[in-house]
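Quick one: structure tokens for this chain, please?
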Amino acid sequence: MASILVVNDDPSFIHTAETILSAQGHRVVAAEDGARALALMQQDRPDLVVLDVRTKYVVGGLDVTEAMGREPALKDIPIMMVSSLPVQDAADAPRRSKCLTPEERAARPLNPEVMLQRVSDFLR
């Protein structure tokens, strides 16, 4: 199965995502901030990054998605953004990251079936 990096500053979200994804055989690594996430990606490139829209992501003046885009080894990693915000409140996230359309973001709280389907879509 896939290696998935979950980046979120909410430990309960991380636990839930790890439980859902691990049950399907995925290897899950977690980070609570952008700096740690980028360091983990450099050590062991994940197949997918599940990134919370509102986690602390600024690293050296760059959003994590921008920092990933500047790194040849990381720029092609798919990013599935999640948010507890209504779609209209987080509308700038896809434009800022240039990674996702509003339809591609997952909502919180996590619905296991929806999360697994989205992850499957991203990993194709």
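The first strand starts at residue 3 and ends at 7.
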